[in-house]
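hey so u asked for the seq, here:
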Amino acid sequence: MRFARSCPCRRTPKSAGVIDHFGSHTRTHAHTDKKLCDSCACVCVRACAYVRARARVVRVGQQVNLCNLCARVVLHTVANMLVLLAILGEPLKGAELYETIYRLGYSSEGLMVHYNPILSELKRMVGRSGGVHSVLDVGCSHGGGVKALWKMGLNASGIDVSKTAVNMARERQGDNPQSCVGTCWQQAAATALPFSDSSFDAIVSTDVLEHLDPPDVDTAVAELARVAQKWMLLKISNRPENTRMQAAKAPFGNGTFAKEARRQFRRDLPPQLHASVHGADWWIAKFKAVGFVHHRTIHVPSWACCAFVLRNAALAFR
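ran it, structure tokens below
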């Protein structure tokens, strides 16, 4: 009796006894002998009433000799599994990840809690020597931070990696050309800022850089240093975020973010959104390597750590 070297699903079959098809079933369907792994054997046994009747119980690890009918069932099942895996693929990441969760209502509540320490520090800097007149918000989300900067009398623009976030910011905060630097709202990644060198006196970014995939960190750090002329005010979480997407209900769905991403988009979210979790010293060293040094720590609650002001080392400020 000849057996295929491997199961149709490409998993290695296990050695055990053989269950043969006999009688009229054999005469009706010419044999196609297949050697199956456990999972596919179970598929065949469920599919083929003849095997169920003759074998009674198929134990894990047994080989099943398939007729053409059952072989087709197994191959069809395996094909469907492969298509599903191709659709699902790896968990979402980067721009595709944030576009997905914004479409599910991420940040649609418009909270400003994470902005407040940065805005308070920026107010103290306005009007000082080496002060601030123009600001870029990297990861502007719903746009509330940019609007707050406008109210402070500053020229400000915002970018976000998600097109849905940019549209939400524009719809909620409007366009204010006289208070923007170039376009008010743009879709862009921190790794490719659509501005020329030294376009802004300062860059602010709140709870964004920890979301970068590790290979993108150095590029993003260099881009922020390229576009900021004088200052950076950064708030970067130093904690993992393991369960938020699995536990929080999606505003634009009936289940959690993770369940709705799977249901609506047939994709899985990553185990956590914070892909680059490091302490303040690690980030400060990264920016020092591109010419921005630690100027002052911004005090925030321990659960919100960490926030700090960086200055261009080539310029002298108080």
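The beta strands are 18-19, 63-64, 134-138, 155-160, 185-187, 200-206, 228-235, 292-297, 307-312. The chain has a mean pLDDT of 81.
lmk if thats what u needed
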